[in-house]
């Protein structure tokens, strides 16, 4: 079941309370409705977490926590998916978002110099920022919706497969022990008919 798989890896509420970076969530961490693992809550959590992760803004975790509260979806899963954009993956992800936005707007792609500097970024910000924001928003919305749909389909498929497996287990015939069958056939049944001319049955008076 998807629920058992997620319960194995998602953190406990106490573990989140101890993190100083998550103190802004306050009572949200203790809200039991934000820890439910259902098809709807997990699908919406994937959508919210991926949407927040792909936005080139600060405080992505606050956006993710707000989305989890509004949609009543799984809070720890939202928090975990935000870390898809980390210092290692962020340059590549946001560069692809920028190229998507530049292609949509029909703008030429600004090539990054060999020696990247703050001065270059500041001078090119007016050309980079609009396509970056547009491409990031397009990627966040599309990937979030696709993730929501995929989770719902996979969850339904897993539930249907598990139900079919239980049905097959219920109707499967029990294995017959051949030794027990021979012993039962050799022992006459008390109510079985016997030859009147033969010896009396020990089961009849």
Automatic annotation (TrEMBL):
Q: Which residues form the DUF2062 domain?
A: 22-164
> Could you tell me the superkingdom of the organism this chain comes from?
Bacteria
Q: Where is this region: Disordered?
A: 171-205
Q: Which Pfam families match?
A: DUF2062
Compositional bias ranges of the Basic and acidic residues kind? 191-205
Q: Where are the transmembrane segments?
A: 50-71, 132-155
Under InterPro entries, the record lists: DUF2062
Does the keyword Magnesium belong to this entry?
A: no
Coiled-coil spans in chain? none
What are the boundaries of the signal sequence?
Answer: none
What keywords appear on the UniProt entry?
Answer: Membrane, Transmembrane, Transmembrane helix
The protein depicted here goes by the name: DUF2062 domain-containing protein
Q: Which organism is it from?
A: Pistricoccus aurantiacus
């Amino acid at each position: 079941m998807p629920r058992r798989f997620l319960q194995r890896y998602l953190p406990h509420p106490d573990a989140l309370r101890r993190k100083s970076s998550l103190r802004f969530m306050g009572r949200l961490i203790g809200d039991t409705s934000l820890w439910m693992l259902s098809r709807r809550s997990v699908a919406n959590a994937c959508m919210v977490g991926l949407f927040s992760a792909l936005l080139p803004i600060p405080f992505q975790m606050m956006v993710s926590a707000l989305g989890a509260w509004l949609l009543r979806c799984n809070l720890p899963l939202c928090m975990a998916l935000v870390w898809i954009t980390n210092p290692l993956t962020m340059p590549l992800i946001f560069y692809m978002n920028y190229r998507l936005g530049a292609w949509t707007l029909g703008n030429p792609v600004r090539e990054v110099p060999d020696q990247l500097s703050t001065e270059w970024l500041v001078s090119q910000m007016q050309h980079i920022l609009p396509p970056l924001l547009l491409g990031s928003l397009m990627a966040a919305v599309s990937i979030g919706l696709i993730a929501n749909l995929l989770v719902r389909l996979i969850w339904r498929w897993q539930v249907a497969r598990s139900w079919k497996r239980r049905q097959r287990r219920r109707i499967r015939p029990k294995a017959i022990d051949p030794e027990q069958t021979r012993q039962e056939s050799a022992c006459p049944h008390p109510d079985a008919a016997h030859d009147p001319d033969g010896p009396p049955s020990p089961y009849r008076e």
